[in-house]
């Protein structure tokens, strides 16, 4: 009995030990499996960390590759991440700006912009243009970044420098307005010579509106063949060769009228120096031509009058130089016009004894148009080309031309009149002498006294 019990106890013990051993082995296998799982998780975590770090690096590289400033900030507007372009704008390194309120760095503001605040509150993208004190303009876009529960995480700012674009747009608006308001007629053609744009002045000058002339050939303005002028096709040919052309031409308006114009034409080129079109400016010459015709008529009338005049007509500038000399002046003084133009009239025609008065009085006339001879008729002496002295009658009037005083002189040769006056005075003197002698002869009481009285009377009359 005791022996049997002992054998059972050993058998049970062996079974228990075997069971415990198997349980221990099972636990070991489970532990190894757990360790392998943990090792796998650690490896996955390390790979994830590498991927995250790689993603961060790629994100930073992508941000740095953008030339415009980009940064992220939290709800307190503190910078979380920024690209190199943004850091350069702040004047600091990227690490130095992390955690600082962006609006204190760039752009420097008194507080965060309202659009930025609304982006956080409304969880919607906003954009606005920020005009900086240095004249730059940035188109700023605010993007809210949310989690999967639609909770706000941070904001992404992308700042695009649109200064050049805005300046170009403003310049284009200015040019467009200048084109519209220009007083000269302007026409823009494509590279085939077809009309693309006209301004209101062109419409007023030629009578076409933009709708009816658009896409029409410039040949529409061709003047009738009978008119001697350079026609539009020939001008286009010159522009293709030389890029510029200027000249007076005739062009036909919508109503058929032929209009004289001054044409300034230029080729329009792109950045590859290829001709993409042409621009023509037309200056209406009708009033100018009418004025020129009136001026020519007036000049012809003046030349006819001055040529027919018996009196010399001279014009002097403010340096006392002769600028006009008519045919009568040539007859009176002996000089041809080309001999005297540009000569000093006083040195040429005035005797020496007048020079002091000329030097004293001329500066005041040149400055103010005043002088002792103005408005007077003077009898003077003048020098002929041959050197002899002639008597003249002079009247002078001031004329202001281009802010400079000129003198117009009318000179009449009175030499013959002076000679006749001298002869008349001699005749009168002789008559008075003869009359006095006759009176003495009638009343004389003696020959000796008669001779004495007659000599005394002759001397008194001659004096």
UniProtKB/TrEMBL annotation:
It comes from the Bacteria. It holds the Pfam family PAS_4. The keyword Oxidoreductase does not apply. Keywords: Coiled coil. One of its GO terms (biological process) is regulation of DNA-templated transcription. Residues 243-297, 376-426 form the PAC domain. Residues 55-100, 171-243, 298-352 form the PAS domain. InterPro entries: Biofilm_reg_signaling, PAC, PAS, PAS-assoc_C, PAS-like_dom_sf, PAS_4, PAS_fold. The keyword Transcription regulation does not apply. CDD domains: PAS. Residues 7-65 form a coiled coil. PANTHER family: BIOFILM ARCHITECTURE MAINTENANCE PROTEIN MBAA, DIGUANYLATE CYCLASE DGCP. NCBIfam families: sensory_box (TIGR00229). This is PAS domain S-box protein.
